[in-house]
Amino acid sequence: MKAEQVFNEYNSYIGSGKKPADFDEFWDKGLEELSQLPLQYELEKVNIPSHIADFYNLYFIGINGAKVRCQYVCPKNKTKKTPGMLMFHGYHCDSGDFTDKVGWVAEGFSVLAMDCRGQGGWSEDNTVVNGTTLKGLIIRGVEEGPESLYYRSVFLDTAQAAKILMSMDNVDEGNIVVQGASQGGALSIVCAALEPRVKKVVAQYPFLSDYRKAFEFDITSSAYEELHYWFRFRDPMHEREEEFFHTLEYIDIQHLASRIKAEVVWAIGLEDGVCYPATQFAVFNKIQSPKEMIVFPEYGHEWLPKLGDKVRGFLIGDSIQSNKGE
Fold first, then answer.
1. How far apart are CA 323 and CA 314, in angstroms?
2. What is the reported pLDDT for 141?
3. Sheet architecture: strand order including 263-269
4. How far apart are CA 306 and CA 286, in angstroms?
5. pLDDT in tens, 64-85
């Protein structure tokens, strides 16, 4: 009943966002800027015992000269080209342990997990802004305009990471999958939108969408609390409200969704008070490629039981796993 009610409310919801007229031009320009960077990277061996996997720190120089670090985990004996997997982490966090990826290497993948600039991992953030640098990264650079937004750089980093993985001699560039949760889910969507050769996406309750709608909710306890912070301390009378939201439209993933060519599996908890279901439907409903939504009516922004089992076949080249009969 709960799922039916939510779907009735949001099944046709196309978001509160107002896509800028030059949105696609903005991102095409970013991709052109990215294409001018050499497709170079540095590998640094990491000594972790394993019978099946080799471990590396991988570094590349991204937009604006920032050094971005990834974990790269690949099979020891590379006798043939492997499928590639990109992984993106949650807000404020990092890529986790290297050994988290060994199970995917056992399935034959070469895995690249990116640390987002200036968050919990080792990637550097050299965003220089005049406005606030406190209380969140969505609003970092918003007062300077779209070109200065923190997430413009991170979004382009996802495409650069994908291109690097695809360029590796041992990786099958036509068989690339992407996955992540929350911020990682958003970046998985972004990666597939900016690098259309990505084949499959698993996105778990993605972040970074439908900022105007998110602002209508109780955002002081959600991942979007920095929107409230910005108005409280930078624009307490909302004199720049339209300018503020217009700038954020350039990093709203709902406007990138139509660019995706990959097959998408989307997991959502209907009690999510961190990345609200409405903000997720705004993106999902705009995806035009094959897609499926997996619904957890009693769950929120948390571990979703059986999801990993259900999508494993999809990622390794089979179908969505049915759990009927368990």
1. 14
2. 95
3. 42-46, 53-61, 67-75, 110-114, 82-88, 171-181, 200-204, 263-269, 291-296
4. 27
5. 999 999 999 999 987 789 999 9
Write down the domain spans for the chain. Answer: 1-315
Catalytic (active site) residue 301: yes
**What is the percentage of the chain residues whose pLDDT exceeds 70?**
97
Catalytic site includes residue 228: no
Binding residue numbers for substrate: 91
CB atoms within 10 A of CB 210: 26
**One-letter amino acid of 66:** A
Q: Which amino acid type is present at position 49?
A: P
Angle of helix 2-10 versus helix 277-284 axis, rounded to 10: 60
pLDDT tens readout for residues 70-129? 999 999 987 789 999 999 999 999 999 999 999 999 999 999 999 999 999 999 998 888
Q: What is the pLDDT of residues 297-313, one digit of tens each?
A: 999 999 999 999 999 99
Of 16, 110, 182, 209, catalytic: 182
b/e per residue, 277-298, with b = 16+ CB within 10 A? bbbbbbbbbbbeeebebbbbee
Q: Is the alpha carbon torsion for 169, 175, 176, 180 positive or negative?
A: negative
Q: From residue 180, how far is each of 78, 113, 128, 187, 306 by CA, in Å?
A: 26, 10, 28, 7, 16
Q: Is the pTM of this model over 0.85?
A: yes
**Is 272 marked active-site?**
yes
In CATH terms, the superfamily for domain 1-315 is: Alpha/Beta hydrolase fold, catalytic domain (3.40.50.1820)
Query: Known binding site: residues?
Result: 91
